[in-house]
Design goal:
Elements lengths: L15 H7 L5 H6 L2 E8 L2 E9 L1 H11 L11 H9 L5 E2 L10 H5 L5 E2 L2 E3 L13 H7 E3 L7 E9 L3 H12 L3 E10 L7
Parallel strand pairs: 2-8, 3-4, 3-7, 7-8
Antiparallel strand pairs: 1-2, 5-6
The structure holds zinc ion.
Length: 194
Amino acid sequence: MYNCVYCFEKIKPSGILNYVLNQQLLCEICNNQLKQLHKTYQIGSHQAFVLFEYNDFFEKILFQYKENKDTYLIKLFQPQLHKQLKKYRLPIIIPPSNRKNFHPLKYLLKDFEVLDVFQKTKHYKQSLQNSQNRHKIKNIIQLKTTTLPQKAIFFDDVVTSGNTLKHCVDLLNQHNCTVIIVVLSLHKDHKNQF
Ligand SMILES: [Zn+2]
């Protein structure tokens, strides 16, 4: 008998074959909260392929992973993410980060070529990422190199307002770098608004 990797409740197999084949990681209650999207969404003038809905459950999983370094939890989404990214055989560009030691996106993409081409010009908080502050993002995120591939994947783990994504992709496009956008999770309140 296995336990749910998130809540640690015992997993009741829904059928022995299903249980063995899927190697269930989540109990039924948790599994019902993990919403798969696997769809392309329009974010501003860009199209992004999104794997999961960013809801309360996904927020908790990502928090456990990123802040508490509970790397076991990435088993819930890493296989699907890697499968999607491997289709393109392209380097992956990630948004800038303030993190020094544990870098969750780089860890998540450790089998891929990851290009860290952005920098933040000054410290900024997540709270700046709402639409009223859109103009500020332009002053905060810049390219630290203009040596860019002609084609790449732009990857982010969470898209809420979409402003960071739009700004980063616009900057890359302005420097003749075309990107395919892959997003791990898109905020449920924004899913239908772009
Ligand atoms: Zn559970």
